[in-house]
Every structure is written in C-alpha cells, then in structure tokens.
Design brief:
The chain is α+β, with helices and mostly antiparallel strands. The protein has 5 helices and 8 strands; from the N terminus they run E-H-E-E-H-E-E-H-E-E-H-E-H.
Amino acid sequence: MSELISNPDLCIDCMKCERNCPQNAIRVDEGIPLFCMHCTPEKAPCLNICPEEAIEELGGAIVINKDKCIGCGMCRDVCPIGAISMDEIGIAQKCDLCVNEDAQQCVEYCPTNALISNSKEIVSAKQEKIASELKRLKGIM
C-alpha cells in the first residue's frame, strides 16, 4: 500500500505540491500540507455516507468513482479535515494517492521532502538518530 505522510517541519510553503497535484487535492495552510488521510474503509466517513457507493477502497487508497458520483456533496460535508472538494461540474474530488500515475506527484515535486510516500523512511531516520545517540552515550560512559 502506498502512503502519503507529511513533515510540516520541512515545509517551506513553496506550494509545488498544490500546483502539481493531478487531482487538485492538496493544499498548504501555514506550512502544513493538508490532504486526505485515506481512512480505513470501515472508518472512512466519506465512503460510508455516499448514497451511490461512488467512494471505494482501491489498493489502500480511498478513491472517488467519478462515473458514479452524483455531486450531492455529502462526502465533502462529512470529511473531518475538509479534504474533499467539488470540481467545476459538481463532482467530488480528493487525493487518490496518484493510483493512476507512476509516482505521487506531490512527493516528486516537494523540494524539501516534507512529503514522503513511505513511513519506512521516517522509521529508518529515527532509528539512525537513536543509534547515533546511543553510540555517543556509550562513549561518555
């Protein structure tokens, strides 16, 4: 499963993620990239409220089937973080983790790695930091 994780400490408000998102589904607010969190299907408010079952889970991503969407806006209204908007013709749109792209565009264009697509990168960086600190402490003792 692909992920999308942000590190607001690295965000420089360049807005490249916003400009390059094919779904126009990410925005930066005061240095914090905001996007769909892709809740688990049983807990996804948008998926569970859609009267047409136009929102579905696809490879770990919660996606909107535009052919089924009737533009009622219920998904937009129930999303706790405001990650769903309506496009110019009234169809719901949100981050789909670039399931139809070779790579996540927001991650590809982020110059500071404030957006990454794999939590293993974060875990690895933390492990390296802890190992380094333990070596330092061992040298002191």
